[in-house]
Amino acid sequence: MSIEEWPASSGGGERLVIWTRALGDAEATRAFGDAAASRFRAAGGELLGQIGGTTIAAFEPLDAIEACQLVLDLLSETPASMETAASAALGEVSHPHQGAVRGDVLDRAQWFCHRAGHGELVLDDGARALVAGHFLFAPPLGEEAGQRRAHPIDRMAPTIAECRAAVARLARPPLPASHGALAEAVAAHTRATGRSVLLVRASATALLDSTLEHVARMAAPGRVLTMGPVPFGLEPLGSLRYGLTRLFPLARELDEACASLDEPLHKALADVRLGRPVPRSLVSRALSAFLAAAPSKPWIVVDPLPAIDASSARVLKDLAESGPDLLVVARIPPEGTAPEGAFGEARVELLEVSGLGGEGPRFAASILGVPDDHELAAFVASVGGNTPLGVLEAARTLVSRGDVVFGDDGFRPRQRVRPRRSSVPLQRLIAERLRDLETNAFRMLEVVALCPPGTPRPVLDRALELDGLGEDARRAATRTLEREAWITGGLIALPSAEPIRAAVLKSMAPARRVELQTFLAKASADLAGGLFAKVAAATHARAAGETDGPAAILIDAAEAARELEHRRAALKLAATAVEWSRSPEIRRRAAELARGDEGDHAEGASTSHAASERLAARWIEALKASDLELADRLIDEGIAEGAPLVTAETLRSWMALLRGDLGLARELLASTHDDGKSAPPQLDLVAAFVELHEARPRDAMARALRVLATARRGADKGAEAAALATIALCFDAIGREDDARALRQLAVDAAMAARTLRSKNA
Question: pLDDT class for 626, splitting at 50, 70, 90?
C-alpha cells in the first residue's frame, strides 16, 4: 500500500510528522510498529499509516516536545538486535481527494529517517526550531551542497532544563592565589587588637565577597555588616539601612541582637532599619555599642566605597576614629581613589587585587571538580578570561547551554573542546544565559536588578505582585534564580554579582524599566517606615518619569536631615530636588538650606551667571587643596543657590573623571542638558577626556578642536588654553610627541594671556 492510499487524518494544516522504522526479524519489527502506533495514539497523535516496522503519525506543533520524547523513549527500549531510527519534520499535511494523505513533509520525513543512524531521532529545520529550547543536538548531518540539513538529537546528553539545573552542581569558587595576600591581611587585621581599615583596589569581577567568605570561615568575625550603594547616594543613612536589613532580614532578629543595648541605642538602630530620621551622633553611638557587643572583632564591608551615602560614610568615619575594635574592608574601583578623610586619622592599608594570571585552569578545575590538567579546565579558563567572575560565569554558561554536561562521573565536555585564543566578554556570557531564562524568573530578576542591594523582601514581593506574579510564581522563580546562581541572599534577594545586575538592566526595554520603576515606587512608598525610606520611593518615581512629587519628598527629607546632623546629605537632597523640579517653592527651600538660615531670600537675588562663576571659582580652590569632598559639597550648594544645572553637571563629570569612574562620567555627560543652549566648552573637554581614557584619541581630538574654534571665536583665552592642552594629550596618544610639545607651549602662552586679561579686568 502506498502512502497516498492510506486513510486521511481528521484535519489538515501544519503538523509535526513522526516517521519511525525498524529492521530485523519480521515479527519483532511488526511488534515495534504496533508499539509505536499504540503510543502515538495514546499521546494524542493521529496515525497516518503503518507498514510492518514503519509507522507514521502526525502531532500538533504544540506537542512537539512530548512527541519527540516519546520517540526517544521508544528507541531506547528497542533490543540491540533490531536496527531502529526515527525522524520528525514540520509541514503541511493535506488530503485533497478520496481521503489520500499528501504533503512534501511526508517525503522529507521519510528521507530524514533513512539518513538517521541506529537509535537516532533526526529533525528538519522546522521541527528543530520547535524543540530547540528543550533538547540538545549533535552536529547536523547533510552539510554537503544541495542536501537538506538533518539535526540528530543528542541521545547521550540531558535536556536543556537538566543542564540549567546542573549549574547548582558547580562548586563554590576557590580562593584565587592572587587573593592570597588579601586573605592573609584580612585574617591578620581580624586577629590584631584595635581599629583598622583595609582598602582593596579591585573590580567588581574580582569576587571580593567570595574571598571574604573564605577568610570568615577561619577568622570567625563577630559580625559582618555589609554596606553598599543607594540610588544617587541620596538617602541619608540608606547604605546603613540596607546593610542592617541584609544582616537582619526580620525586625525581630535585630531586636534580639540589640537586647543588651540601652533602650535609646536599641531604638536608634531599629529606626535606622525602618528608614526613620535619627540624629547622626546617636546612630554612631548606637552602632558602636552594637559592634562592641559582638563576641569577636566585627567587620564592616563597604562595596564600593565611593557609592555609599554621605551620612553612612560619616558614621563609618566616626567608627574608624573612636569606635570599638573593628575591621573595615572597603573596595574601591581599579582607577578610583578613596574619598579624602574618609576614615579620619585611622591607619589605612591599601592592597591591590589583580586578575587570575596563569592560574585560570586551576581555578576553573576547582569549580568543575576535575583535575587541574584536565582539558575541560583549560577550555573553561580560556573562555572566561583573566578574572574570577569571568571564569565562574564561563563555567555557568557552558553548563547551562549543554557544552559541558553533568553525569555519573561529574562534569565532562559534551563534544571535543579546544582552548580558545581569546576570551568571551563577560557581558556576552551573562547575556547568553539570560536569553534562555524562564519567563517568570526573568521578570523577578529584572525587579531585583532595579532594587538597591538589601531592599527588604516585602518591597520586592509587593512590586512583583503589582507586575502580576502571584505567590506560587514568585516562589518558583526564586528557586530557579537561586539554583542557576542568579541571586543570593535568602530572604534578601541580591544579584549574585554586580555585572549580572548591569547585564539585566542593559537588556531591559525602556518601557519595561519605567513600568517596573512605577511598581517599585508604589511598593516602596506603601511599605516605607519613615521619611528617609521614602527617598528610595522618590528615586523610583523619578526614574518612572515623575518630577514634582519626588522632589517634594527630597526637600522634606533634606530639611529633616539638616536638623539631625546630616548636613552633607541635606545639601545633596536639596540640590537633587532642584535638578528634578523647577518649582519656585522647592528652589526657595533649597536656597535656605544651602545658605544655612531661615531668613527671606528674594528670588533672583543673584543671577545664575554670578552663581555659576562663584561656584566654579570655589570649586577650583577646593581642587587645588585636593579636597574632593569639599568640591562635591560645593556643587550641591551651587545648585541649591541657583547656579545653572549645566555648570554643575559639568563639574560632576570632572569629579567622576578625577575619581577614575569613567562609567559615571559617561552617564553624567549623556544626561546633561542646558535648556537648549549650547554646552559650555568645559563639558566638551570632559567628554574628550573620557574618549581619551577609552582609547579613542581621534574622537577626543575632534571634540577638542571644536572647543578650540569656539574659544578663538569668542576670544576666550582660558578655554583656548584648555583645548590646546587636551589636543596635546591626543597627539601624545597617537605617538606624535613633537606636535604635542609644540601645542603645550601654545597652551602655556594662552594661559598666561588669560591671566593677564583677568588681572587687567580686576
Answer: low
